[in-house]
Batch of 2 targets.
Target 1
Amino acid sequence: MASRFLTLADVMEVLNISAPQAYALVRSGELPAIQIGGRLQWRIEATELENYIQRMYQQTRARIETDHDTSPGPGAHVDGLLVD
């Protein structure tokens, strides 16, 4: 049976990010997490990590669409360079 909760190390591995990046995600609330035990260790519910990943896909899609809508068309010059 898969574990319901993940450690920060698990999140680091899944997202291929550093410890400070994982810590920042949970401290900011961007990735919902809980602290448990006497040492207040972070735990992230697996479903919350999946929700976070889906939000990042949506944000990336939206940014790409916005960038695409505002990008110059073929033949335009940007910073002295011809855009194909």
Note: Strands lie at 5-6, 34-36, 41-45, 77-78, 81-82.
Target 2
Amino acid sequence: MTPRVLLAPVTVTPAKPLTPSHLKGLLWTDVMYRATAAIADVTYRYSPTTYHLTEQTLGFWEFLDRTQGDLPYDALSEEEIGDLYVLFRKDAPAPAGALRPYALEAERNGWVHPASARVLELWTRHYSQLGLHDPGLTTHQPPGLGFEEMVEQLVGLGMGLDHRSGGGPVYLDATRYGLPLRQITTPDGHPNYLACALRELLPLAAEHDEVVLLYDPELAPDYTLLQRVLAELGPRVHRVPVGRVPIDGEIRSARHGGWHDHTAGALLRTLEADPDVRRLGVRLYFVAALGAGQAQSFRADLLRKSLERAVRLLRRADGVRPGVDAVRQELGRHRRDHTHVDPYRLTCSLLARAGRTPDHDLLTTVYL
């Protein structure tokens, strides 16, 4: 029986440009998805819809309408919208009552603020240029559980504490496993990222044999909790941390700005290359050269060298097509004790083959 794998990377808020850190996570996920899909039945779950209800996103939308008026968002660049996001993060939080109408429109009608709709539209273009699988950036994909259903299931698992009847929040309780109590809503009912992830992943986890969570190491406490909860439903759950990419030695959140010369759009404008060269080259750099950690700063010169390596690999691979079985066998070498394929090991293997001709079918299946 073909194993079923759920791939669930952390979802980027559509309020800012994609930075090198975002690109790294997306490219790692893409290589893992395409490689694993060749040997297993893979569900790639990445739904911006699910996370629109976080206070961060709703607050940004309320801030825009309150301070900017009716801007022509469909004509703005992602950098211009990102500048507004930086301003929002400096503003005082909006009261819960101001966010409630946005939450109702997003939850009931699938409404998306024009600023975020514009960002998602621009991201689809970047995905196309980079050869990334689009899991439905602009598609309305609500989570499988309503909030009340999610809380009910948590309580049923013995991992939920609902204090709303006394004016308190809802907690995720995995203390019996030695993990800290984690608040997942504010007392006035706004869910955080973890609550949204639970609404999305709880109904999906039980349908799969393996769940893979790719995440920012700064979110490790929440993803440790998420792993523990999803494992209660039966699947093997693996956490894969993918570190951020420092700029000039410094790791900074996109909320602070300083990314104008390093956005996905800016990088793509400098990568004038054949589409296959660009797609393979960026994966060689962001997956193999940078690795899973976050010690190495972004370097444009090394990115260009990766594109040069991509040219050489494609030339050597031209015409070498041993077939589907050979591709599956090669992918199986990079699985370790799990079903999903390790993107780092697989990609590094391409660079380690100085005397071996790379397989064009493998490149086409996973990288191009």
Note: The mean pLDDT is 92.
